[in-house]
Here is the input.
Amino acid sequence: MNVSDAIKYKRAVRQFQDKPLPRDVILAILDAGRRSQSSKNTQPWDFIVIQDKVTLKALSNLGTYAGHLAGAALGVAVITPSPEQRFSIMFDAGQAAAYMQLAAWELGIGSCLATIYEPEKARQLLGFPEDLFIRIAISFGYPLQDDQFDSPPVKGGRRSFEEVVHWERW
Amino acid sequence: MNVSDAIKYKRAVRQFQDKPLPRDVILAILDAGRRSQSSKNTQPWDFIVIQDKVTLKALSNLGTYAGHLAGAALGVAVITPSPEQRFSIMFDAGQAAAYMQLAAWELGIGSCLATIYEPEKARQLLGFPEDLFIRIAISFGYPLQDDQFDSPPVKGGRRSFEEVVHWERW
Here is the structure.
């Protein structure tokens, strides 16, 4: 799958088949995130990889729209330093997440971001150190609907090109 | 170019040929950013597209490692709401930037991020509203070195997989 098609057709997938991901697929997704660029190559991320259904269910209860994690074959918790330290931390986490989600899409795996609003409970669940932070977890799995990879993009799902793009000056 | 190769081989390109980008290429890069996903589909970004050499040179002086903007064929200033409003703004900007840079790479265009440390001067230069914010601009252009697209990844450029990835719990 070429890059432009991945970007054009990729959509959020929130319902997954009850089917585990092959280990090489999991490794490829994680490695895409690991390879991502970052400010001054600080690589401000760790990934906690969750396949245990009990943990996924518990994590899914720690965000408002995080329910899809409960049905995921794989959850990846994106752990970073506190984003209050510098603006680049969440920017870099966003780049790494985009890499993982695009790499997954090419491999036939859907995904969706979840926002974790209860970081202290997530810390207890996942055991990461007190000086680190969680805001984002990502669900991955085979889409329940198998027409996800060649459906056209939803019309009107984004602001228009003319609204977003300014030439030379605002 | 498939997604995994783009992710594997993409590298920061800071030196560019003195050659403009075709308009359809510019539109494709910008559209990749526009299509990116965002928290609750807020699309917290505007893109100011700069091809004027005087403006590029001026912008390149507003960040510590931003010099590469002066030689770019195209600069894209990523304008967002204040990132202090919510953590997702810079995360979403990171996703959009990753999409633009990967889309460009597939089209034979190198790119590099610049951090803008003088936002007020950038505002005067680019004319965006006071309630909006700039931290990131992206240089794009044909790489000066033409072996950039098939060079192997730099060894040791990233933390090891074992260090970054934690299984089930930290």
